[in-house]
Write a structure and sequence with these properties.
alpha/beta; 9 strands; 22% strand; two-stranded antiparallel ribbon; 2-enoyl-CoA Hydratase, Chain A, domain 1; seven-stranded mixed β-sheet
């Protein structure tokens, strides 16, 4: 019989990397990196959360709930390199944030060889749209919404033609990424971005879960069980 330290919880025998659900190790992983590796199911998968506002080059106020891209990028590289992790689930509930940081994370996600699935809960707004479509399969719950709008910036900017040109090029990068990783056409995506009749204080379109699927932005309606089933299917398909 395995001898247990009196100061440690009584857990089943297994490898040191196996986390019990709700264990201190798992809780610490969630607190530190906003993700967790689940190893007690049929396959070992990593869950990454992208919530609040994407924090990029500038630190946001302390009261803001943020996802820091310098935390997410190493996490994605570790998942891709870890031979024990078989797939990745990305849970999104974000209002958007730093465009370049969000697009950088989305590019990393889309370039992963391991099976990836995304699920939009609550909202996947602004730069959250490229993040949602960057996975191999994307899901959205019926009550979630996604806001599609042009690139814009608040604060002090230089009022020169080059600034507008930079915004145009950034916007085209987003259009290309989204349309390359989903079923929506560039023309339709630009129409949704430039819609002037829906938002009172902005230009753009708000899509609920079913509308996002109908537009071809998201693959399917579904919840967490559908996400896990799709990920397992991809994992087992890759193994075969």
């Amino acid at each position: 019989m395995k001898k247990l330290d009196n100061n440690q919880p009584d857990t089943p025998q297994g490898t040191p990397d196996e986390f019990e659900t709700g264990s201190p190790e798992q809780t610490d992983q969630i607190i530190q990196i906003g993700g967790v590796t689940a190893s007690k199911g049929k396959h070992v998968i990593h869950c990454l959360t992208i919530i609040g506002q994407i924090e990029g080059h500038y630190i946001l106020p302390a009261q803001n709930k943020t996802t820091k891209y310098e935390h997410v990028i190493p996490q994605l590289l570790a998942v891709e390199q870890d031979p024990e992790i078989e797939g990745l689930v990305v849970i999104l509930n974000t209002v958007g944030g730093d465009v370049e940081a969000g697009l950088a994370i989305a590019e990393l996600l889309s370039g992963m060889r391991k099976p990836t699935v995304s699920l939009v809960l609550g909202g996947g707004h602004s730069i959250g749209v490229p993040l949602a479509v960057s996975a191999r399969r994307s899901f959205i719950v019926p009550s979630a919404t996604m806001t599609v709008h042009p690139v814009r910036m608040n604060g002090l900017v230089l009022g020169v033609p080059q600034t507008l040109s930079y915004f145009d090029r950034m916007q085209e990068r987003i259009v290309k990424f989204v349309t390359d990783n989903s079923r929506i056409s560039p023309e339709r995506f630009r129409q949704l971005m430039m819609n002037k009749d829906e938002l009172v204080m902005d230009v753009g379109t708000v899509l609920d879960g079913q509308a996002a699927v109908d537009e071809g932005l998201i693959d399917s309606l579904g919840g967490v069980s559908d996400v896990i089933a799709a990920l397992y299917e991809m994992i087992e398909g890759d193994v075969k």
